[in-house]
Amino acid sequence: MEASLIDWSRLQFAMTAAYHWIFVPLTLGLSIIVAIMETIYVKKKEEFWKKATKFWMKIFAINFAVGIATGIILEFEFGTNWSNYSWFVGDIFGAPLAIEGIFAFFMESTFFAVMFFGWNKVSKRFHLASTWLTALGAAISAFWILVANSWMQHPVGTEFNPDTVRSEMVSFWAVVSNPVAIGKFFHAVFSGWMTGAIFVAGVGCWYLLRNRESKFAHASITVACIVGLVGGGATMLFGDTSGIHIAKYQPMKLAAAEGLEDGGPRAPFSIVPGIEVPGMLSILATHDINGYVPGINDIMNGYTDRDGNEVLSVKDKMNRGQHAIFALKQYRELKDTDPESAALFLDGFRENEQYLGYGYLEKPEDVIPNIPLIFWSFRVMVGLGSFLMLLMIVLLWVLYKKKLDKLTWLQWIALLSIPLVYICGQAGWIVAEAGRQPWTIQDLLPVNVAVSSLSTASVKTTFFIFLTVFAAFLIIEISILLKAISKGPEIEK
């Protein structure tokens, strides 16, 4: 079957987002590693640490520059490919993105200029402060973007205005303090620390394999492993928090990630098909082995949640959503000519308002995302994350024992793990975003309503243009990085 406008629009946005996420986690991780190295330099006053800092700062700058361009393109696509979405929730979604651009990105870019060009032009402590503020700016920038994204996962602090047919913000604080945003922010930022750590450790091991820059390699790997262990541990901790939120606000995503057809208390966790741990999913989702976790069939047919509330079947939600759409249409047609009848229709709309988005679905099965994609992406994320955490522990241990130089097999594993940490991060975002389908905004706005009225051919054309340009940029960036790494920090002669 030929791909539709929606398919191509989703594919283009997914490609742009995935490409952008190549650069974001490394920015978050390298900024912390660079700041720590410069702190050591200021404390110890050793030229070695200054040169080490400047080397990784150069790598950070290359990655940072390309990441900016991809982020700008990504935000423009909300207006070009998803204009109905932008109209419907622009007041809400646009606010955190505007703050990110005006405040966080401005702060990050300003102090980046001082950090990169200010050597020997400002005092050591002011330069160090600029480096830490650049790292802080990167984290704050990620926070506001994740506030916007988390609102799509769990919309709060807003009300639907039937007169403008838009969702409007009623509590900025509720949007900012969204529990999903807090958990997702720390999970994403600390996973960025792990990305930066694996990258630095892998490059450090490359120098050891080449019998170059031994002191620099050992110092870089040591700092990276410490950052990686902190980042990896925190990622797991806040991953658990995110799991609780998914179970509460997006049960279909959780059911798809587990391939859970029929839920209940003591729900099992599937390691791989055929191998299950009884009760483990209930523990992960509710922190109670007897906690009720709905499966795909439960969500489709209706169920009673853990708090004793009756959850309607998808078909019933669709029917009530269609009533909401009809009542909204009648209200808007009659509000100026027959206020009394319009008020009755408005009351009918309010009764079914929470199911409005379901009224635009074509069939109940539309609420089921791509189960194999979500199921295996989740296992890739967890499996690779656990492996990379173990690698950080092993590297730090053999460094402590002064045996890393002799273990070339471990050096190769560390080097080859660089692409694995990127795969791990991409798999996590596949679970988060593809697992939310068919919703652009959970339970509120499906993708078939959010998409712009464009020709499929135009979206297909721009997809391949972006793909070509992005591929060229990626090749250029990798070649520049490889050239800089090959040249090395030039510490040891």
Describe this structure in words.
The protein has 493 residues and is mainly α. It contains 16 helices and eight strands. The chain has a two-stranded antiparallel ribbon. Strand 5 and strand 6 form a beta hairpin. Helix 2 packs antiparallel against helix 3. The longest helix is centred in the first third of the chain and has 40 residues.
Summarize this entry quickly.
The protein has 493 residues and is mainly alpha-helical.
Unreliable stretches? none
Total helical elements: 16
> Can you tell me the overall shape?
globular
Structural class: mainly alpha
Please give the order of strands in the largest beta sheet: 1-2
The helix content is over 70%
Indicate the proportion of strand residues.
Answer: under 5%
Report the count of strand segments: 8
Mean pLDDT: 91
Instruction: Determine the N-to-C terminus distance.
Output: 62 Å
* Run of helices and strands: HHHHEEHHHHEEHHEEHHHHEEHH
Rg for CA atoms: 25 Å
**Main sheet summary:** 2 strands, antiparallel
